[in-house]
Amino acid sequence: MTGKIKGLKCRECGRAYPADPIHVCEMCFGPLEVDYNYDAIKQVLSRETIQNGPPSLWRFIDLLPVEGRATVGLDAGYTPLVHAKNLGAHLGLDELYIKNDTVNHPTLSFKDRVVAVALTRAREMGFETVACASTGNLANAVAAQAAQAGMRCFVFIPANLESGKVLGNLIYRPTVVEVEGNYDDVNRLCSEIAAKYPWAFVNVNIRPYYAEGSKSLAFETAEQLGWKAPDQVVIPIASGSLLTKIWKGLNELHQLGLIDPVTTKLHGAQAEGCSPVATAFKRGVDFFKPVKPNTIAKSLAIGNPADGYYAIKATHESTGSMDFVSDDEIVDSIKLLAQTEGIFAETAGGVTIGVLKKLVKNGLIKKGDVTVAYVTGNGLKTQEAVEEFVGRPLRILPKLQSFEEGVPHAN
Ligand SMILES: *Cc1c(COP(=O)(O)O)cnc(C)c1O
Predict the structure, then answer these.
(1) Which one-letter DSSP state was computed for residue 354?
(2) In sequence order, what are the beta bridge partners of 372?
(3) Which of 71, 78, 176, 268 is most buried, with most CB under 10 Å away?
């Protein structure tokens, strides 16, 4: 539909801007956010129009910041919401669900969502070159979708990434730039490059549009639960954008009359070795202290998260909580999820499941609560994190005797 985007609006002072490739308020330096004409959207949107849409995040196109039709990332989103009965039984939960973005298209992480929206928007704004500052998964999604869209692509990553994520860039043949530093160094550099070159940096100058793609995780969850918001959600935090947008997405559905008032509690999850947001929340303060990341959860290793403040605010609004887990707990939780549900998650998934365990133990999530854990990336991309902890295959000769001697089995 046309006319659904009013423009951009400063999240701090409310000043209005046109829907351009800009992200910072000139007056107060606050971040800009897309402002919608909800009355117009309400006229055309219903549960039926959504259900008749494509089996991708684009079934929610009326709530996403593009003017025309979707042109990039047509298969992204609409991933399974798995009723995790085995893991639920293990933890003592009857209604535990995994939102399984380990099988997202095309690059097996939730970043395929934000990039589908960002590149569709970048194209309609006339950009020919796309770029990003990434902790790994974002670069994979930008590289793959730019290849499909025929756009020139530059991805900037910290120099210590997992080999699966590096290869997952190179295969699509973008320009891959490894920066000697951590993500926060990469991001600072990219802000300078974005100010000088006419490129669509998905998480810098077109961040307001990119970030909206995360709302699709909330929309799909509510639809898949039968048009109901969950009681509890557990969300991994890197920049904090995903958490704030899940909150925004659920509340938009209510505002448009598609679900009841939202009583969902948000629970933010970080790795102990990079937990600026969760640490601030637990201390009861609104502002976090930036840290130098040191964790196996590299996809979440942002020491100075752009939306950390807003993530704390949204979590308070929902009367939720935040917590962090150690690298050992991350590995144990990856194994637990795999061995109970057959889902091989990356380290961020270990963070989510690890914090979920703590929430149950601390009594914050109860047996009957409808609980959704967001598992946002695929374990095949972070094999280094677990390879020492999964044992070795049994090796035998191709002979029955060797099998019977070398493989313990029931007979
Ligand atoms: C980027 C990422 C996140 C978190 O994203 P933010 O919106 O920056 O908080 C979570 N999980 C995975 C696997 C990611 O790659």
Answers:
(1) H
(2) 97, 233
(3) 268
The residue segments making up the domain with residue 38 are 1-44
- Does the residue 314 lie in any domain? yes
- Expressed in angstroms and rounded, the spacing between residue 69 Cα and the centre of ligand 1 is 26
Indicate whether residue 139 lines ligand 1 (CB < 6 A): no
Whose tokens are 């130098």? That residue is 292
280, 222: one domain: yes
Residue 2 has a pLDDT of 74
Residues 86 and 10 in one domain: no
Domain total in the chain: 2
Are residue 29 and residue 88 in the same domain, yes or no?
A: no
Q: Which two tokens stand for residue 384?
A: 């280094």
With respect to residue 53, please indicate whether it lies within any of the assigned structural domains: no
Return the residue matching tokens 């196109």: 61
The verdict on the CB of residue 238 being under 6 Å from ligand 1 is yes
Residues 184 and 303 sit within 8 Å (Cβ to Cβ): yes
Sign of the dihedral through C-alpha 368, 374, 378, 381: negative
Cα 132 to chain centroid distance, Å, stands at: 15
CA 237 to ligand 1 center in whole angstroms: 6
**CB of residue 371 inside a 6 A radius of ligand 1:** no
Question: Residue 305 belongs to a domain with what CATH number?
Answer: 3.40.50.1100
Fill in the amino acid letter for 397. Answer: L
- Cα–Cα distance, 93 to 365 (Å, whole number): 8
pLDDT, tens digit, for every residue of 263-301? 999 999 999 999 999 999 999 999 999 999 999 999 999
pLDDT band at 409; cut points 50, 70, 90 = confident
Q: Which DSSP state fits 158?
A: E
Q: What is the DSSP string of 197-220?
A: S--EETTTTTHHHHHHTTHHHHHH
Question: Angle CA(269)–CA(78)–CA(385) in degrees, nearest 5?
Answer: 40
The first and second tokens of residue 253, run together, are 């559905």
| Distance of alpha carbon 208 from alpha carbon 31, whole angstroms | 8
Q: Are residues 337 and 87 in contact, defined by beta-carbon separation less than 8 angstroms?
A: yes
Residue in this structure with the two tokens 């970043």, named with its chain if needed: 111
Q: Which helix (H) or strand (E) holds 365?
A: none
